[in-house]
Amino acid sequence: MTQDSTVSFGRDALYVNPLDQAASFSFDEQVARVFPDMIKRSVPGYSQIIGMLGVIARQHVKTGGRVYDLGASLGAATLSVGHQLQDSSVELVAVDNAPAMVTRCREVLQRELPAQPLSVIESDIRALDYKPCDLVILNFTLQFLPPEDRTPLLQKLYAALKPGGALIVGEKIHFADEVQQQWLYELHHDFKRANGYSDMEISQKRSAIEDVLRTDTADDHLKRLTDIGFIPVTQWFQYLNFAAFLAIKPSQNDGGVYAAT
Ligand SMILES: Nc1ncnc2c1ncn2[C@@H]1O[C@H](C[S@+](CC[C@H]([NH3+])C(=O)[O-])CC(=O)[O-])[C@@H](O)[C@H]1O
Ligand SMILES: O=C(O)C(=O)Cc1ccccc1
């Protein structure tokens, strides 16, 4: 962070003190202020995924193309794509519906990617009219939509993607097998404890997110994306109960087998 920046970020201590009743988690001013620290200490592999998003973008984004980062928060995924592509003919579009995130995101991205055509849009991603695009990133965002809204959004994104375009979905997942679910759930708890959260912080945060973050299984994701028409669909990442998927919109002339630049 540069000296003249108005954006500053702190350590996540939101759930340190006992709360009578934890309010539902929301992406407000308090969360935005500690978000980089919160997500790195809470999501196993977050930094590795972010780094790889830019690398994957290089395979799928063409000259003059467009990339959407949906539920962009502070723009980390867009930043990774911008740094990897280094292509000022590509438009990067970051969208989030939380005003506290959008303000900071705009400032960070304009400062870090000054030569890039860039839009930071405050909008619900379900309401947006999507322009033709090469890559859509939903990095830990789909999980916050009501389950019944997930397929309609993904269908809309499929329609906007150009043939050969890619969708990347990062998600917290759960497991159909109860033993596996319990095991990975506990390991995630231990991961957070190893990153400096107390048991009380972990359990208060869990109560606050349980109604707003509803997970699917990896199979749910693979099936839903395949049913919509994406092919191939692959899971390219898993670290404990966090996973990421890559889904391609097939092009007419590759027999639906593979598409990239
Ligand atoms: N309907 C919606 N419309 C727009 N934005 C939404 C909606 N619902 C939730 N959001 C936004 O989705 C983001 C989810 S965080 C994404 C991290 C980021 N992708 C990253 O790669 O750093 C993940 C997490 O905190 O676990 C928040 O900024 C919400 O405001
Ligand atoms: O903290 C958790 O347990 C999570 O599942 C990840 C997360 C990270 C940031 C905001 C909300 C959820």
Automatic annotation (TrEMBL):
Its UniProt entry gives the catalysed reaction(s) as: prephenate + S-adenosyl-L-methionine = carboxy-S-adenosyl-L-methionine + 3-phenylpyruvate + H2O
Name the UniProt record assigns to this protein: Carboxy-S-adenosyl-L-methionine synthase
Q: Among its keywords, does the record have S-adenosyl-L-methionine? A: yes
Instruction: Say which enzyme class the record assigns.
Output: transferase
Q: Does the keyword Transferase apply?
A: yes
Q: What GO biological process term is on the record, naming one?
A: tRNA wobble uridine modification
**Gene Ontology molecular function terms on file:** carboxyl- or carbamoyltransferase activity; S-adenosyl-L-methionine binding
Task: Please report the organism this UniProt entry assigns to the protein.
Answer: Terasakiispira papahanaumokuakeensis
Q: How does it assemble?
A: Homodimer.
Q: What is the lineage of its organism?
A: Bacteria, Pseudomonadati, Pseudomonadota, Gammaproteobacteria, Oceanospirillales
- CDD domains found in the cross-reference section: AdoMet_MTases
User: Domain of life, per the record?
Assistant: Bacteria
Which gene produces this protein? cmoA
Cite the InterPro entries for this sequence. Answer: CmoA, Methyltransf_25, SAM-dependent_MTases_sf
**E.C. number(s) listed in UniProt:** 2.1.3.-
Q: Which residues bind S-adenosyl-L-methionine?
A: 46, 71-73, 96-97, 124-125, 139, 206
Mind telling me which Gene3D superfamilies this protein's record contains? Answer: Vaccinia Virus protein VP39 (3.40.50.150)
By sequence similarity, the record places it as follows: Belongs to the class I-like SAM-binding methyltransferase superfamily. Cx-SAM synthase family.
| Assigned keywords, A-Z | S-adenosyl-L-methionine, Transferase
| Function summary | Catalyzes the conversion of S-adenosyl-L-methionine (SAM) to carboxy-S-adenosyl-L-methionine (Cx-SAM).
Q: Which residues form the Methyltransferase domain?
A: 67-165
